Amino acid sequence: xxxxKLAHLARTYKRDARGRFARTSSAGSDTAAILGRRKExxxxxxxxxxxxxxAEQRLRAVYGDRLRVKDRDDPAVQKALIDLDAMPExxxxxxxxxxxxxxxxxxxxAKGRAIDVYKAHxxxxxxxxxxxxxxxxxxxxxxxxxxxxxxxxxxxxxxxxTAQHEAAHALDHALGWPSxxxxxxxxxxxxxxRWHDILHWYFAQEHGKGQQESFAEGYVQWNKHRDDPxxxxxxxxxxxxxxxxxxxxxxxxxxxxxxxEFFDTLV
Length: 267
Ligand SMILES: [Zn+2]
What we know:
It is built from 12 helices and 4 strands; from the N terminus they run H-H-H-E-H-H-E-H-H-E-E-H-H-H-H-H. The chain is mainly alpha-helical. The chain has 2 domains: 47-160, no CATH class; 179-265, no CATH class. The protein has a 4-stranded mixed β-sheet, sandwiched between helices. Helix 8 (162-174) crosses helix 10, helix 10 (209-225) packs across helix 11 (231-238) and helix 10 crosses helix 12 (249-265). The two termini are 25 Å apart. Bound molecules: zinc ion (ZN).
């Protein structure tokens, strides 16, 4: 029966009186305002040691020793800390509870690829787990659901933030994989965008993988553009949607709107 499932969704996502997904509360707007200021500082003033140290201090208050950091002198490690700090507070708290549910779960940051991150943090168990997989040896970041570990490397893969991307996979898991729920917006939004061929292949993959990756990278784009009046288009473009290609404007806008309004409702 669907009832228990829907009850669970009612707790997880804010909806208005007609059952639609509601926009953020005023608390969410405050977070957005703080985020906006912080992001501005990040781009204009660069990543000063002072800024990442403050970011780590705030993260430490939420994650405790579930946040593990090596190679702090690496600018990309510092950026990872600043990016994680820029996520909304309620999302961070939700993640912290999720990580605490498994011994050894948490956010691991270090120089290199995911496999180097495992090595730097002495996680032979995770090296053994992913070594046999094609992606295991080359992935820049990786979230492993059984162990609830988000490994955040520093090699630039072209995405806006490996740290937020991997944290978003963990958030997807913490919320019961909304990306895989056909009744929630991410699944149909990606399906429709795939049909119209406006997604980068990585976000258009079949069997739910495209939805999972669109959730993660869409979340990064949402954090980046959430205060931008053109955020719908920019979020969609972050997933590969064509820029200015005639005839696709409505579909691009629709994809971005469905994703951004969905992320607005996450608590
Ligand atoms: Zn991913």
